[in-house]
Amino acid sequence: MPSDTPQPAFVLVRPQMGENIGAAARAMWNFGLDRMRIVHPRDGWPNPKAVAMASGAGRLLDEALLAQDLPEALQDCTFVFATTARPRELVKPVYSPEAAMKLARDKIDNGEKVAVLFGPERAGLENDDIARANAIISVPVNPEFASLNLGQCVLLTAYEWQRQVTEMQPEVTELGKTDWATGQDVESLVSHYEDRLDEAGFFFPETKSAGMRVVFRNMFSRMRLTRADVQMLHGIMRQMVRWKQTSSAEAEASKTAGEK
Fold this sequence. Notes:
The chain is an alpha/beta fold. The protein has 10 helices and 7 strands. It has a 7-stranded parallel β-sheet. It starts with 8 loop residues before the first strand and ends with a helix.
């Protein structure tokens, strides 16, 4: 059975290819939607190509409401959106997908039943279909290539619905098993590098040393380091110093052996 999650019904009006119906089901289920309605599919129903394309979302096809015409599919709905990329000579409010799904959420939260219409692949919804809708969803596509695949249009709308019902952070950094470096961690790292670079004569000449140190520290402040990063950078410097000391010792031993 469909989930208990309040959501709009996605109505595929006279879809032509089973593969596109399956792709639409998969796109819906990607974003937790499982109220599919299918109006007079061209190739009949059920459609094995739709099942194959739906993959793990085949349940949506099994539970889809099959209607012979659009009025039957919309008989229990109180507000209907129609998706279209073409301008229509009909007086209706036009929403972006984001604004439409925000309005859909508000209406569903108030107990209304909302549907979204998606037209057939060849030419989209007809004016007679759109006349039954309360509002239009228009996607800002390339005007020279405005046609969206059925599955793509469903995916885009479903994504916007998910954005309205899920708390989504615009950016998240996965830290794995580490944490952000503290000021003390970074200070210890910079001091470690400064000490070794001092020994190597890097901050030269003396008249430029102070400015070079400021630039060096500023470089580290621009990097958001984790504690794992700090540990690795400490290790790199220790290994470089160890390698230099070992190489120098080996060279001195070789020189001494040669003199003997």
